[in-house]
Write the structure tokens for this entry.
Amino acid sequence: VGDIVATRRNDRHLHTTTGEPVRNRELWTVTGLGDDDALTVSSHLGSGAVTLPVDYTREHVRLGYAATEHGNQSDTVTIGVELATAATTRRGLYVAVTRGEQANLILVVTDDRDLDHARDILEGVLASDRADIPATTQRRELANIDRAPHRHQPTLQPRCEIPEWFEPLRTRVRDDLAEAQANAAADARQISELKANLVAATRRLAEANQACEPYRPALSAAYAAVETAREHWWAANSRERQASKGRHRRAAHRDVEQTKQTLDDALAQQQQVEEIAKPVNTRCDQAAAAVRSLEISITPTQQLIAISDHAGRAAWLHDLDRALDDWQHWAKGRTVPQARLHHARAILEEQNSREDPTWAVLAAVLPAPPTISTTQPAIARPHTPERDIGIGIA
């Protein structure tokens, strides 16, 4: 439910709630699923709803998120996405990039990540118009393009030889990158799980405390009664020890026995209340212990993750992999922006200082960034007959 689908065959036996027939290429939104796989759909053209039987659904219903350029003619969407290749026509490209109201994105299909190659394909599309070419000629030209996708690309002149050890080195970097990314993702999951568990444990503690709330007045009253009875018993014992022999001592002894009985009754009442409240009290204790355990474990875990710094290593290896990619493109004769070349050289030189002098071989052939002079420019000093005025620069 909610998917966009397209009907791909006219069927005048199927009518919408407004009496319109089901038409080829019409877009619909699925609003219901039948037990027999029939679809209830609502038209995007406002022609009502219809239930498409299972046979029609299986044979003539497709997902409607994408279509050919001409299949999207007259459509208006929020964002348009076009997949362009060397076989794309100028008129088809025009249709594709004028559908979106907010943005239109062109994704060019290439065999590599070279932006110049993608730009060349688009320039070729814009430079040709196949609208008047016969279908047989068009088919033949498309077949030739498939057999030679780079036929119109200029021949690249390598700038330097790529060492035999370059690909094994690059494979090692990518393997290390994949491992670092996996470790960083595992670290992130671990912290996320701990925090999620802490949130859940805190919620359970709040629920347990809420469940304990009705029992707390009775428990407080029982504890207070025991404390009061114990104080009276101690006081009676003290009076008995201080009483003289005879009638006063016997009275003090009876007072001790009575206060002791009161204390025993209070203790029994406390035990009874505690037994009734035991399940919820146990739940509160366990919930509080779980919260304390998680709070204690999060900080050292974060410290260990910070020490291992898998995310930082993954970011560094990602830059190193991109530097090797730019180096290879440059070595093969392709155009790489100067800023990226200088960045690649800096990364390779830093890697050379870290691990293996082999990296210096790659860094040395890349063009060095222009040096910036630190010498202060000469400043004209005005001259007067009386004296020279010196201007100092801090």
Q: What stands out?
A: The first strand starts at residue 4 and ends at 7.
